[in-house]
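Data availability (excerpt). The following record was deposited with the supplementary files.
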Amino acid sequence: MTAELVRGQNHTLPQTRLEIRVSAGTPVVAGATLGDERGTVRGVEWIAHPGSPQLPGLEVSQQAAADHRLAVDLEALPVGAHRVTVLLALPVGAGGPARFGAVPAPFVAVTGLDGDEIATFTLTGLDAESAVSALELYRRQDAWKVRAVGQGYAGGLAEMLADQGVAEATGLAGSIQEAVTRGLARSVAPPPRTQGGDRVRHATGSADHRPPTPPPAPEPPEPLTDPATAPPPHTAPGPAAAGLAADGPINYAHPRRQQAASPPPPPTVPPAQPGQAAQPVAGDATGWSMDERLYNQIWGMFEDLARAVAAYRSAVDFAESRMDQELDRALSDPRNRIGGAGDRAREAARAKRDELASRAREALDRDLAQLAAEAAVVEPALPAAYAGWGNPVWHAHRVPMEIPMALRIGDLHLPERTDLRVPLLVRLPLERGIWVDSGRTASEAAALMDTDRLRVLAMETAVAHAARLLAVYPPGEFSVHVIDPAGAAAGPLAPLVDAGVLAGPPAAGAGGVASVLAHLTRRVDLVQMAVRAGAADSLPPDLDTGEQLLVVNDFPHGFDDRAVTQLRYLADEGPAVGVHLLMVADREEASAYGPVLDPLWRSLLRITPVADSHLADPWVGHAWTYEPLAVPPGSRVLEQVLAAVAAARRAAGR
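Predicted structure:
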């Protein structure tokens, strides 16, 4: 029976190989410290954190995430370690909440290897704290117990580590946050929480040992709006259509949706026969429309795959750890090192390891088979914005009159089953820019490719993404600008140029670069001032308030210091007012600028023109292999789509 702990309460642990699962509802940093009999941390070598995630008997996540799994083997801890303290902290400088009082109460569960919960603790009552000691596992008279702590620290990680006796706590906290920042730069952002937007999970015949999601903490009330001054639900093409937001949280509600008390129910799924998995159905999630249901379903598949593989890897790791410990204990006796006793001990330990790994693989295969069946049903039902270029829906595509919820920019898969692909969807309007990495060191596939060919592929990838964005926006509500300083991308840019869908000819030379950057910088400045002053109607009549995309080829060639500063400004301030970057760049070639460009790289979502394992999920932090969307060989679908965009613009008088 699960013990639901309150602050200060303890509970005996029936086993020493455990998982600690954290569910926070927002990305948090998870770590752990080891303490001696007095609870003192002897040094940095007794601290597991994203920059140093593994200690003997202890492993934590390598990045900030909404959910974590911490692996603990109490018998394998270093000599002298009598306490394990689990720490949670909010990332610094990531644009997220700065205090735990503004997020749902974190939930922590201690489970066995089989996933059964031993003890749980919901960290309520937090306010200004940005770091918290969640719980501790401690040794008492040769037995291990868990205690709910919930001690918060308004001073953050530094104050918490100093309270545990860590020397140079401030410097260590800074290095931890820097490691987290690097991890967030490669992380796929989770979908925003929307009312009724959860995935509906049906029984699949395999156990789901995920801890229950704790009830969210009460949200602060929304600021009241005067109906006389409130903007209409949708205005086009004013700043509201550009995704503008003043101070406060972003409103993810669809601008043209009439709000109702609750979303429509998901489609009815026929009940599964006894002993069989439920039949997958496209749109098997709640939502206001089929597109929203499919969006939530895809993210649910993404999360399910991440957690299923995490459980499998955790089980295999513990099986290996158990085998090593049993061998160490058996062979520590000199009498077992000779004769057949040692061989029998090795065989028995390996047999146990193989049995545990086999059982874990069987459970994983069941989950993967169900997800594969679901993917086979969902993929043909996707709308164009969510579909790959090979989906026939693109051949019948018509430019829509509303902006879709999201856009597919690639596929993700894990090595446990490479043919099971999950669409990578990003919300629209874009919340961060995109960087297509043209460097040869980006991945093994890139390292084996000719430099010139890789650059062409990178630019073709950028052109394909620009075309998809043009195709899913209403006519005239999305414009594309191109900077090609040396004119080296004439070939890849030909589909956009020939279709006549660019805002102007590709800018070349120093003058062209300066002109485009000045134009977009002016737009950002004017819209920001109008929003802050509440005077959106005072914008100049020649200002295009639709979404703007700047495609930059071969950065940093052709950029002086002023141009680099403007580009950084657009990357930081542009997305909030409808100006987005799509950069094709080799980071090594920009190394001459030094660390001044580090914030630029971190602000962009990095993708590659070839397969590369560099993106991380927001739940457990797996390294996912990203596969770019490819136009089928010999297909003219890209040209057909751009021709439809051009025709829709002419019909709308744009």
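Summary of structural features: DSSP finds eleven helices and 21 strands in the chain.
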